[in-house]
Amino acid sequence: MASDLIRVDDDGVLNLTISTGDAGTALDHALVLESREALRAVTRGKLEAGAVLLRGAGKNFCAGGNVAAFAAADDRSDYLRGLADDLHSTIEFLYETELPVVAAVKGWAAGAGMSLVLHADIAIGGRATKMRPAYPGIGLSPDGGMSWLLPRVVGAARARHIIMTDQILDADRALDLGILSEIVDDASVEQTAHDVAAGLASGPRGSYRAIRRLLHHSATSTLGDQLTAESASIAALGSTPEGVEGVDAFVAKRAPDYAAARR
């Protein structure tokens, strides 16, 4: 990986930094591309990780797209299509890895930044965390999957209201809506999010992959299809080293050692 902002740490967490202090913590296109390559490497078995941590390196998680770069483009339509396509292919690889995703949502998460928070399984915010769709403010429409995910999180009517009126959601409101999972002190957002991701990386990775897969497909499955998928999934996990270790540890009244089971 070309940048230490995109790395797997000793805890097995794939850190994907999506913004820096440059350009006002706007979404960094180069880092999006680096993130895509790292996620692609995971799906190809060339990079091992147990969880993903989405983060920003500046004061905000991500303040949205780089609007100054939009304005400077010779062909704005072509430029925006390229940015959106690159972001969307990165998100597709994020799902293909089937790794649990944690977001460290400090400061602002606006525009594409808010979209990325919605893709996290667990989003940790601080008291100063704020979210905003931001697209109507510059005469554009959502990207990054916001129009698909926000209705599924908060309901279709509420999603229309939030996006069309460009609402600013403070941390408490985002928590109530289910966008944030937990609020901690602002200074603790990064560490708490990393600790959660590290805990997931050290846990039963096959279980987490299956949970994420089942939850993702449930949106378009019938109850019958979902029950069939659940039966197949739990049966398959029951004979894996992690599944055997988890059950045996429970019976023996000891803590499971999933890392040893994977070796």
From TrEMBL:
SUPFAM superfamilies: ClpP/crotonase. It holds the Pfam family ECH_1. It comes from the Bacteria. CDD domains: crotonase-like. InterPro entries: ClpP/crotonase-like_dom_sf (IPR029045), Enoyl-CoA_hydra/iso (IPR001753). GO terms for molecular function: catalytic activity. This is Putative enoyl-CoA hydratase. It comes from Gordonia sihwensis NBRC 108236.
